């Protein structure tokens, strides 16, 4: 009988926790709203050579929209150079924004980070240097909950705007599932 309780407990843990996390991620993504801020931070994502991946392009398009609609006067593009990338994610974003007509003096490049934590930690350092007090943080919707926890941890007064890339729905779903594991890691390791 004792083994039955253990099995039931294990089943509950491995079914309830993922459902709770998925609900947490989805509800955050569906309810957050950007607020007027000093800057917009676009979190990095894969670059194919020198070209933004579809996820990154959508993030930058959203950051551009935030900038155009007055949610921030400056845009911080944050992301280092990963394996297989010819340039940093930040430089790819900067080039894309310039091609859309954004003036270079409104784009701030953070190209040293290799993780979400570093994206936000380094962006907060830039915010401090520039005297910025608040930011709209842009990423994929699945990434917003964890980004909000990290932003709070590093001291960013943030609001959020997420994107969902419909053309890559399978990758989005995979990323939502992977993000549950990343959230568990965040909660366990801090």
UniProtKB/TrEMBL annotation:
Membrane spanning residue stretches: 7-30
Biological processes per GO annotation: Gram-negative-bacterium-type cell wall biogenesis; peptidoglycan metabolic process
InterPro entries xref list: Cell_Envelope_Assoc, DUF218, Rossmann-like_a/b/a_fold
GO cellular component terms attached to this protein's record: plasma membrane
UniProt KW keywords: Membrane, Transmembrane, Transmembrane helix
Record's keyword annotation contains Membrane: yes
Ranges where the DUF218 domain occurs: 38-181
Keyword Kinase found: no
Protein name from the UniProt record: DUF218 domain-containing protein
Phylogenetic placement of the source organism: Bacteria, Bacillati, Bacillota, Clostridia, Eubacteriales
